[in-house]
Amino acid sequence: MARRKSKNTEKLKVMMLGGLYEIGKNLAVIEYGDEMMIVDCGLGFPEEDMPGIDLVIPDITYLEKNYEKITGIVLTHGHEDHIGALPYVLKQISPPVYGTPLTIGILEKKLSEHTFDIIPELITVNAGDTVKLGTSFSVEFINVNHSIADAVCLAIKTPLGTIIHSGDFKIDLTPIESKMINLTRLGQLGDEGVLLLMCESTNAERQGYTPSERKVGASLDNIFFRHADKRITIATFSSNVHRVQQIINAAEKYGRKVAITGRSMVNVVNVAIRLGYMHAAEGILIDISEIKKYKPEQLTIVSTGSQGEPMSALYRMAFSEHDKVELNEKDVVIISANAIPGNEKFVNKIINELFKKGVTVLHDAVADVHVSGHACREELKTMHALTKPKYFMPIHGEYRHLASHKELAMQMGEKEENIFLADIGKVLEIDEDGARFNGTVPSGKVLVDGYGVGDVGSIVLRDRRHLAEDGIIVVVTTLHMDEQLVMAGPDIVSRGFVYVRESEELMDDLKELSLAVIETCFDNGISDFAQIKNKIKDELSKYIYQKTKRRPMILPIIMSL
Length: 561
Hints:
By secondary structure, the chain is α/β, with parallel strands linked by helices. The chain has three domains: 12-208 and 372-451, Metallo-beta-lactamase, Chain A; 214-363, 3-Layer(aba) Sandwich (Rossmann fold), CATH 3.40.50.10710; 459-560, Ubiquitin-like (UB roll) (Roll), CATH 3.10.20. Helix content is 30%, strand content 26%. The protein contains 15 helices and 26 strands. The protein has an eight-stranded mixed sheet with strand order 7-6-5-3-2-1-20-21. Strands 8-9-10-11-12-19 form a six-stranded mixed sheet. Strands 15-14-16-13-17-18 form a six-stranded parallel sheet, sandwiched between helices. Helix 4 packs across helix 8, helix 6 runs parallel beside helix 7 and helix 14 (504-523) runs antiparallel to helix 15. The radius of gyration is 29 Å and the shape is globular.
């Protein structure tokens, strides 16, 4: 009699700690039994209601608590929204990190700017390689096209089946100096059986196909020809190695030198040239400090700042703060990127300043100077058709992108009950009986402000917003507590609320009110500093709102003799 195959009772858990209902901060966790692996570890950019915040990274509390289970971090490509959090995360956990040569090269440069108690272990792999992570996972790296070289998607073999993680991708039939996406291998995996497809959704609302990167090259060539008498400055993402290569090619064709400005641009170009992902003829690349040796029409400048970032190279040029470049009517500036949602006003601010200087400005709205690196709907359909997943989880996008991708999958014949629109921290649990959401893990945003990581929370942000909206009133006084006398003050200091010299009557009223509150406290036997401060805050807040309809932050400072 044949022995019945024993049922596998272990569960496969999949969760996103970032990259859902947002752009950036991508981090996926796959867990089976006592082992887990991580896919990508990116950063996000601060929102408008985060004054003073530099970066946003995922909350890795769950990873820290389960550190002994982590078998490795696998990277799909070298964009900031996929690797940018690693310099901070690797200070808390230190599993081995796997990535393709350019990805690891960019990461090494980023990590060199930080200090670590344990030196991170970085392992270079190539598209086509397979690595074993513990006993539960093996990961195959599959070549894809994206707006950065060396991008891969992942085929993750688990005891319950294969997970395809698309990373960021598009289907480019004429890529720049790289191979076309390996559709053949994706089809083979689909024929073998795919348990779960985790697929990016950034362009899920856009019909058709994403144009080839070569379209930008043709447009750049035309611009170089038409503006042969002007200096050309091009701002793009520093990681878009193929875009920068096409700029270098066009400059070489038209007899121009190329100067690089912006720290991240300089770093990536140096890494790409060292690793052979970018090349330039002898003498084409010059230091930015050498541009005065050449006529404007002999120069091309490649710059950071395509997102309008304050203090980026392009920003400093636009506002005449760059120490090497002064723009005028003899300049053409090309912004070769789309604004990330939320950055539109920063980009528009730079464009307006450039126009004030008489600069000719070309951007995607008026010229074909950018194509996306993300798959549009027809390419997403191809991914689904090839992999034929049993279950599907849309990832990497705001809610509308994820919902649009779900609708696309249903058009492809996938059952709604097998499509899982997750949320950050929500656990998708898969076993031999099916798939379902089951519980959550700690997740969220950790804010980076200068050297501080996680020390700015919701209360500090609330105070910053409060200060930005209504300013601050500081009440300074010196009290003799034993004698219950006011020895000095109260003095009123206003910042960001009203201009004191034009509001002397209001300032005098606040002084008198503060003094009256203190004397009332003494009369009632109140000598506790905290109580007196709270009474001052309450009474001044009521009075100021009654007079001005504003609510500045009120900060009493009491010194004692």
